[in-house]
Design brief:
alpha/beta, Rossmann fold, 2 domains, six-stranded parallel beta sheet
Length: 253
């Protein structure tokens, strides 16, 4: 079967008033990791000059705009339109999941309702997004990590990694989260498969992402804690390597 038809079909719904157009290219690239963006819709009052940046972006990325006038000042009427469309899409049976792009907590109940119906929900918003909405999603990605980095200087990148490693050692919450994940996924010899570790963490903390802490990969973050041994294994007829971690064992004196 064609790979395109085996990937999850996703509905991408963007709240223009609570999302930045500058991240759209990286946002869509991130969504492509989870499935096919079958439908891309964006909601806002397009008479508002603040949305001009979005208006100039829509055609390039084939995003369908939906007009929603702001009938009451201070109220985001686009929320209701997005929610109604999401429920229509749910009942159409044409989608496997939803991507909600907003930093607004008003979509908390929508995310929970979609998950109750068996849909996978991916949220995308800034770090200011209320926790209630973040944890209502299966996976939540902070959009700050999707912004383009103009500084590619190798020395500065190395310094960033060093600073990130020092910070992670002081982050007790993350250290404990990783430890519990490794322990939960470990086999009788203490080795835990990296993929299982990542899945455990995602279920427990939907907004966790190693990039939030300065590491491109989860394996890099585990290495930075200095608490784990790493083992790379190759299986017969399997492409790439499987990575395993286990707690470092104390040396006997």
């Amino acid at each position: 079967m064609d790979e395109k038809h085996t990937q999850p079909k996703l509905a991408v719904l963007i709240d223009a008033e609570n999302a930045q157009y500058s991240i759209i290219e990286n946002l869509l690239a991130e969504i492509a990791k989870f499935g096919i963006a079958s439908t891309k819709r964006i909601y806002g009052d397009w008479t508002n000059p603040k949305l001009k940046g979005w208006k100039d972006t829509l055609l390039k990325y084939s995003i369908q705009p939906f007009q929603q006038f702001e009938y009451t000042k201070g109220k985001n009427s686009s929320d209701s339109a997005l929610i109604i469309d999401a429920m229509d899409m749910l009942y159409s049976g044409n989608f496997d999941g939803f991507c909600i792009v907003s930093s607004d907590s008003d979509f908390t109940r929508l995310a929970a309702r979609l998950r109750e119906a068996g849909m996978t929900v991916y949220g995308f918003g800034e770090k200011k997004t209320p926790e209630a909405f973040r944890v209502a999603c299966d996976k939540f990605v902070f959009t700050e990590i999707l912004r383009d980095e103009n500084d590619d200087d190798e020395a500065k990148e190395s310094a960033k990694q060093k600073n990130a490693a020092e910070e992670i050692l002081r982050n007790t919450k993350i250290i404990n989260l990783i430890r519990s994940a490794v322990d939960a996924c470990a086999d009788d010899s203490g080795w835990a498969y990296l993929g299982s570790i990542g899945q455990f963490i995602a279920k427990k903390t939907p907004d966790f992402d190693s990039r939030n802490y300065g590491f491109k990969k989860l394996a890099e973050l585990l290495d930075a804690t200095r608490q784990y041994e790493k083992d790379e294994r190759t299986l017969n007829n399997a492409p790439g390597k499987l990575i395993y971690f286990r707690r470092k064992r104390k040396r006997r004196r």
